[in-house]
Each structure stands twice: as structure tokens, then as C-alpha cells.
């Protein structure tokens, strides 16, 4: 490294990796299939990285000085850190030792598993819908620096005339997100190995310095989370220890360090972060704030003497055009207090799509309110120019945004009086149902047996279903033909369930492309994109809908399908809806009013849908809330308010149902102890929940809690094609029945079956029904 070179005053924390047209997805999947070689895949990746760098420079990030992040990943940034750290779990040692195994082979084996290895577990990255591969660490997991791909990125960029800033998950966050491997000793915690990991990070940094990198970015979002295994105060102490050590290396042996704290509020830590021996610190000023008093008193400026502050004032989580005047005010006030300010994003832009200008079908007016990744980079560049040249230099841009925001505030559909009046009229009574006892009595007429068997909603989405949908979308078949196809599909699924002997049936959700988008397309207030893909994990991406206006339901959305399914059978068919919290969590939601207000609007639309379902003869309605846990704020102080509105919106959606209507909900994650009171608060008659992989861990807290309503801990792990045997499922039901009374228990899979094939589905469900039968006849 040469003498210190400050970070230019514009940067972003990272950029989407799959490519504007998901080129990387296609290249990787064709490599997996064996249709292309590793060489071809590496070449596509190299081209994508080059295109990203040029694009970022074109959009206004300086090519020199480390403003351009090198944030490419073949699959996942946490997995990248596992490889860089050489922390290959013992159970994959044979893969790594295999003759001719490349780094990429090992990488994909960890991500996806193979016939002899279960893949690394996946779980959600902080409060996003992105999933990372969970590192498995024990006392003997090897740590050995592997800087190859980091160094290669720097060299590639240099050839292009770009001086990049390699990005890596920092050691504290990495270890706090890791789990102890099955081989770990009693009480071992991955974070116990922090000092060893830091030593390896120091080697990585030294390799980067030798390769000519002037900056490196280490991400430590653990700093803003109260949901990790150590209290936040202790995380900060661990960060001080790690960066005290990393920063102490002689200047020639490391790049300058940018330490980031994205996804939440770091205001309580910022003074201490500013005092660390690193050259720059980032704070998320969208989700978080500044320590106001310290800012006003000059204490913040003193802590940041000699340290640049990357002010994350452009939101990297949503797709709205930033209020530039307000963001500029924040950045300028920091600069005026004497701090060396860099304008940045609140987090890596991996959570937003590439470019609004790719959308050809969106309403032009709506489009003018939006900013995807490329537009965010431009916003950062504008703000930075304002800092360098004074606000007059960017007044035209600020005024343009003022105009756009005013237009958005007054546009038709954004505020609809009828919708607003209805929400304001909501009272507590609208959020409560008859008492639990009255409901139980009323629902006994349904004749549901104990250990009732059911599924979570979707049946396999076969190629034929996808083809028919695509043909319909392209206009190749008409509405009538498509509806006819779906009716046949529903009839097939109903007959199949009757044959298997399930107690409560579903229609199978063949008509739904996606459990949120389906509703977004039918509700007013939403728009859907053509190219707005966002990586969910690995090569998978979703296309979140845009919730831009007041939400209402112009017509029933699911009634025809559910009623048709019910008309085919004497057994009960569950109606199937997606809940308000999940609809919000998996969409890009308007940022001009509290989420609670938006959730209530969605809830009222669902409430009407439930009314109509019941009117049409449906007696059980399931309202899925798989994202309830995901939206839980990282910051403990903000959790009670969140739980209050999220639970409240679910109750508003479901409380119109009379006592004899049975309301189900479905949650699919197993770490649920944290929100057990909230789940209780949903007041659903029956809750199905993921449990198979953790071998019924959830029944313990439920039992302790004295949970009194229906509960269906999953006995069939639908994440794998494996068929669980009758014995295996019997055993899981027995474990559940040992803690929860049989008449409360339901028997069901962990989640929907849409990603499964029919062969394994039929076998697994047949075994599930037999297992329930066995337990009914035996123990219970
Ligand atoms: C991610 S939860 C999925 C629930 C939905 N009803 C399904 O079965 O597919
Ligand atoms: Zn689920």
C-alpha cells in the first residue's frame, strides 16, 4: 500500500451479483448440469465483474481510490468467507482432498451437497429475505488463508483501470453467524476461535496489500443485531478486539480498512467504532440514526478524527427515490462538524434489482418515483458532488427530487379516502374473535379427528402447470382454456388426497405463480416488474412486487378455486391466503407511511376475502405468515412495537370469522422460541410450523408455554426429495405427543410441496397418513 489515500466521497457497499438478465444464474446452472465447462463459467463471471465495474464508474463512482466495491459472489458472501478462511467443515474434508477438486468444486459442494453430503444449512441474513450458507465450526475446523479469489479480483480490476475495494464478511459477524458443528465439544462456540480467525484475516489483508489493494471492506452487521447468541455490548467488545488487532498491522501489510455496520442502528456504538484503528467506518443512517448529542457537542467529530465516516444515507433495501434534500442535509451537517464524510448506501445493494430503465411495462409516473441499484449509485454520486462543490451545484437535482416526491404524494391511488376511512374506523373489537372455548365448541361440528392429517397448501408445480401458465401469459391459450386446465389440476389433486386418506384437503395452489405476487396482481395498490429480480439464495431470485398505493380488493381473489375444490369432495377443503405481514415482507413497500398502516389495509382486503370464502361454503381458512419472524427488528427496543402491529394486522384479517370457522396459520422456520408470545397472540385455531429437521425442537417451548390451541409441527421435511418412512414420522409424532395433548396435535409436512416432484410427494404423504394412524391406534 502506498501512503494513505482517502476513500473518495462516493461509494456503495456492494452491487447485485446475478447480472441484469440473471446471466450468472444461467451460467452456473448450466455448469451444474454439465452443459458447460468450469472455464466457461469462470469466463462469464469475469465478464460480469468487468461489466459491473464499468457500470459503476459510468454511474459516477470514481475509478481510483477504492470507491468501487468488489462484491461479486458465485453463490453467497458468507460462503465466500468460509473459503477465504479455509474453514472447510470436517465432514467435507474428503471433497477437498479429492484428486483434481477445484476451489469451485468444494464451494458448490458446501452450498448444495452431493449424494454423500448434506449441504450447509441455509438461513436468513439478518432481517432480509436473502439466505446464507451457515458455517459449521468446531475446535478442529482448519483455518488457513485462501486469498486467491480476492487477489484475482484486484488484478482484474487493475487491468480495467479500476482500483477496487474487496468486500468480505468480517470475522466477528462470520463467527457469530456460524453454528457449532456436530463434532464440537459440549459448550463450544464458534466465536471462541475469534483470535485465530483474526490472524487468518490478517494474512488475507496482507495478501491484498501485496496485490495492490488500497482499501478493503469488512462487513460487521452483527454490530446492529440483538438476535445473536451474544448481547450487543459484547459484540462491540469483540469487534474492538478484532479490529484493534487487524488495525495494528504495519501500514504496508494491510489495505486501509472500511468497517461497515449495515442493516440497523449503530448509533450506540459509533463513538467507539470511530476510535478504532481503522481508516473508515460506515453507519446505516436509514435504519439507524446518529448519536445526536455526541454529534451536536462535537464529540463524534473528535472520535472520527483521522477516520472517514461513510454515511449510509441512500436506502439499499427499498426501491424508492431518496429524498435527496434530506439525505444531503444529514451528510452536510456531518461534514460541517469537521468529519470526513463519504456518501454511501445503508447496505449492500444486493437486495434491490438492477435498473428501473429496464422496465418497459411499468406506468411512467410510478417509474419516476423509483430507484433501483443503478439509480441509487447515481443518487450517491449527486450527493457526493454536493459535498465537494456546495449545495448550489446540485440544486437542480434536489429540486427535481422535490418535484417527484410531491407528485408521488398527490398522485391518484396513493391515498384513497375510502380505504383510509375504513382503516381509521378499525377498533379493538375488530381484532378479536369469540373465546377459545366457544370456538372449540362451535368447531366440534367440523368433526375433525385428533391427529388430523393435512398439508400446507401447495402441491407440486409440475412442468405442465408452468407451461400452461406461460402459454396463458403469452396469449397462446385463452382464459377459458387456462381455467379449464386449472380445474382439471384441482380435481386431480383433490382425488389424490382422498386416495391418500388425508383428513383436511387443499386445492393445491396450481393457479399461483408465487404466494405473494399472486395476490399483488389482484389487489389495487400494487405493481409488478418484468426484470426486478433480487437474489434470494445462490442462483435463486424472486421478483418482489411494488406496493405503492392504498391497498384494496376490487374482486374476490381465491374464492372460485377454493369453492370449486370444495364442490368436488365431502371432506373439508381449507381456503388458502397469504397474510398481511408476509405480503409486506416479500414486496417492496411504500416508505411514506408506517408499515402498520399499510398492513392494516392489506388485512382488511384479506378480511373481505375470508368473508367471501365462508359465504361460498369454506369452513377452514389458512392465512400463511412465514415471514413473521423475518421482519422482527434486529433492535430489541423496536421489537414490541413490531409484534404489536404485525400480530394486530393478522388478527384484523382473521377476526371477522365466526366462531365455527376454523382459522389456521402457517409459519416455516424453527427458531421460534423468540416469538412464541406473538404466535400465541395470533390467536389462530391451528398453527402449522416447521419442525422435522430440528426433530421437534419446537414442541419443548410450546409445552413449557402451555400452548392451548391446535398445533401441527411438521413431520416431513419438504426441503429434500428424501421420503421419510412411516417409522420416522411416527417417531416424530410421538415426540410431539409426549409434550402436547393429542387432541391439539395436527400431522402435516413442514411447508408447501410446490418444489417437490409427485413421486416422492405421494409416498411421503402416504407414510404420513399411516404414521398418524399408527399413533392414533397406539399411544394416543
Ligand atoms: C413459504 S410458506 C408456503 C405456504 C403455502 N401455502 C404453500 O404451501 O406453498
Ligand atoms: Zn412454509
Automatic annotation (TrEMBL):
UniProt cofactor(s): Zn(2+)
Pathway noted in the entry: Amino-acid biosynthesis; L-methionine biosynthesis via de novo pathway; L-methionine from L-homocysteine (MetE route): step 1/1
Protein family according to the UniProt entry: Belongs to the vitamin-B12 independent methionine synthase family.
Biased composition (Basic and acidic residues): 425-442
Domain Cobalamin-independent methionine synthase MetE N-terminal: 10-336
Domain of life where this protein originates: Bacteria
Domain Cobalamin-independent methionine synthase MetE C-terminal/archaeal: 451-773
Any Pfam family: Meth_synt_1
Role: Catalyzes the transfer of a methyl group from 5-methyltetrahydrofolate to homocysteine resulting in methionine formation.
Organism classification: Bacteria, Bacillati, Actinomycetota, Actinomycetes, Micrococcales
Name under which the protein is recorded: 5-methyltetrahydropteroyltriglutamate--homocysteine S-methyltransferase
Keywords: Amino-acid biosynthesis, Metal-binding, Methionine biosynthesis, Methyltransferase, Repeat, Transferase, Zinc
Organism annotation: Leucobacter muris
GO BP of this protein: methylation
